[in-house]
Amino acid sequence: MRRRESLQTYREHQRSDDLTYKDASANAYSWLRDQAIRNLDCDRSFSSKVLISREDAHGRRIQNKDAVLQLLEPLGFQELVLSELSFQEQVKSFSGAEIIISPHGAGLINTIFAPDNCKVIELFPEWVKPTFFILSNTLGHQYGYIECDQTRRDLIVDIDELNRMLENMDII
């Protein structure tokens, strides 16, 4: 009975609006990253500058992706759709990333595999959650975020704001 009550309490806590987030230690993340990279078997190469696309998702897609790419591609950014990559390819793409730009979403958990000095820019709709800020802080990443306009469930990135963020993080 005790176990069921604990699970009930856990589920109620998960549904609550409080901002309690749990995080593992930097050592735990480092161990996981080292193990994944040590066992990596992937010949594909990726750019060190990555824009994560959610074009196959049901929400938080970048509506003005063409304008975003027009700014980022001359800087050497490569667009990735994570659902099209194997786990090994995801690990490899993030392990060599110097800069990651992505809409908020589960794919950002792969920043665990990114180097300590990686720069992460997270794109949010009208709400902001600290999940990947906390992770980036623990991992030693430089973190920034942009609050985007929202159309239905998707994002419209302010190109001027993205350009300012790139400048502020010494990317351009």
Automatic annotation (TrEMBL):
Keywords: Glycoprotein, Glycosyltransferase, Membrane, Transferase, Transmembrane, Transmembrane helix. The keyword Transport does not apply. It is a single-pass membrane protein. Transmembrane segments: none annotated. It holds the Pfam family Glyco_transf_61. One of its GO terms (molecular function) is glycosyltransferase activity. Residues 24-121 form the Glycosyltransferase 61 catalytic domain. One of its GO terms (cellular component) is membrane. It is found in: Membrane. InterPro entries: Glyco_transf_61_cat, Glycosyltransferase_61. This is Capsular polysaccharide biosynthesis protein-like protein. The lineage of its organism: Archaea, Methanobacteriati, Methanobacteriota, Stenosarchaea group, Halobacteria.
